[in-house]
Structures are given as C-alpha cells and as structure tokens.
Amino acid sequence: MTYVVAHRGLSSKSPENTYHSFDLAISSGINYIEFDVQLTKDKEVVIIHDETIDRTSNGFGEVKEKTMNELLDLDFGSWFSEKYKNTKIPQFSKLLESYNDINFVIEIKGSDKDLVPKVLELISKNNYWKDKIYESNNNKPKIIFCSFLPKQIEKLRFFSNDIAIGFLTKNIDQKVFDFVDQYHLNGLFPYYKLLNKELIEKLRKKNLMISSWGFENIEDANKLIKLGIDGVTVDWPDEIIVD
Ligand code: G3P
Ligand code: CA
C-alpha cells in the first residue's frame, strides 16, 4: 500500500513546517510527516524550507545568518493566516522530544557540512528516537532521510548502512543510477513527471523504494498510486484515499 506523506506537514491548511502543520497531519490520520532541516548561525538544527526567512516569517534574511534565539522571536504563522499569528519556528531537538507516534521523512535541505552530523547527533541523544533510526529495528522505516544533495547523502550513508535513505532527483540518467548503486541507497525519489510504468518497473527490479513529490493536484498523485509506487508526498494528504 502506498504511504502518504504530509509535505511540510499538512501545508495546504496550515503554515508549512510548523507544529500546527505537523499536528494537523497527525490528527488527520497521516502516518508520515516530511520536513526540511537547515543549520542556524549558532549551528542549531531548525525546520524551514527556504534559504531565507522572507517568505514564511515577519523577518528578513538568510537562515544561516540568524541565531536560534533570533528565529524564535519571529512569527512564522501570520504569512499564512492571522489565525496562526506568533507561531514559532520548530527546533529539531524539540520536535524529537514532542513527537513519537509518527514517522518522519527528514529532508536534509541545507548544504552545511555540519548539518548531517548535527541531525544524527540529536537523534542519537534522544531516548525514544535513537534506536528507531535503524531499519533493522523496524518493519517499515520510522525515519526516512532524503536529500537532493549528493554530498549530504554520502554523509548519511557514511554514518550507517542501516538507515533508510532516498535520493531526491529532478532528472533521471545513468549518473543517478550509478550514485544510487554506489551508496546502496534504499530509494529513489523522482519529481512526479519523471515517473512512468517503464521507469517504475526498472526501479522495482533494483528493489528501490519509489516515492514521488512535486504534485500540483490530487489526480496526478492518484495516477502514480495506481501504478503502485511506495510513497507520495503531497500538500493535501488528508484528501488522498488509498485502498
Ligand atoms: O519530499 C520532497 C520534497 O519535499 C522536495 O521538494 O522543495 O518541497 O523541499 P521541496
Ligand atoms: Ca522538502
């Protein structure tokens, strides 16, 4: 059965990458939440998609130029709706403390060389999550890591052969397949328009987890669900019906 992933939480109905969007996804019965991680100026792991805070807060500037405390003073909800005024940006360490009965798709968004080690350190320090990171301890991965950035994927795999990693890609060519093989990746996560029956069969033969993203409407997600892919990451996970 295809797993449905709440993209940046339930981001069509609440401000993306916030506790509100994660809580709404969970209360809607969604099993996987996706979010993006980056490092602040003082090397704290923070959950935010863009390189700057301009679009999703009442502040301006680059995430990597702000300290965690500076970010915590800002409002990450009003841009979406007045109803969400004074929403705080989530700290990854706090997210790990506050959530357990849910599965994570963690996108390593930032390119900082310290980001992956810091994310892994925080997971390893958390009593609940530290064992859940390993695939062999779970029937289905509780944590799936992914990134568009080959260097960050390399760092993840260097940490362990027993964590689930998917490579996000906007193109498919031999280089992509070679990279997936070289690092024994668990999954390939292509932009939805790249996937078709032939490619799905090819990826199946390689025993790869196939998950897709970038959907602009429910119909396109449903088409790929019918073709039997493993995961779809969407802004409206509550509107997708998987039999
Ligand atoms: O899960 C993949 C998806 O999140 C990638 O796109 O831009 O939303 O991070 P983006
Ligand atoms: Ca993402």
Question: What do these coordinates show?
Answer:
This protein is α/β, with parallel strands linked by helices and 243 residues long. The protein has a single domain, classed as TIM Barrel (Alpha-Beta Barrel). Helix content is 28%, strand content 19%. It has helices at residues 19-27, 68-72, 92-98, 115-125, 150-159, 174-182, 197-205, 218-226, and strands at 3-7, 32-39, 45-47, 103-108, 143-147, 164-169, 187-190, 209-212, 231-234. Helix 4 packs parallel to helix 5. It is globular. The protein starts with a strand and ends in a 9-residue tail after the last strand. The model has no long low-confidence stretch (mean pLDDT 97).
Roughly what is the average pLDDT, rounded to an integer? 97
Q: Which runs of at least 5 residues are low in confidence (pLDDT < 50)?
A: none
- Radius of gyration (CA) equals 17 Å
What separation lies between the terminal Cα atoms?
Answer: 8 Å
Which class of secondary structure composition applies to the elements?
A: alpha/beta
- Amount of helix: 25-40%
CATH class: Alpha Beta
Overall number of structural domains: 1
Q: Enumerate the distinct ligands.
A: SN-glycerol-3-phosphate, calcium ion
Instruction: Provide the CATH topology.
Output: TIM Barrel
Annotation field: number of helices: 8
Q: What proportion of the residues form beta strands (DSSP E)? A: 15-25%
Major sheet characteristics: 8 strands, parallel, barrel
Q: Which superfamily, in CATH terms, is the homologous superfamily?
A: Phosphatidylinositol (PI) phosphodiesterase
**How are the strands ordered across the major sheet?**
1-2-4-5-6-7-8-9
The helix/strand series, from N terminus to C terminus, equals EHEEHHEHEHEHEHEHE
Shape: globular
The number of strands is 9
Assigned CATH architecture:
Alpha-Beta Barrel
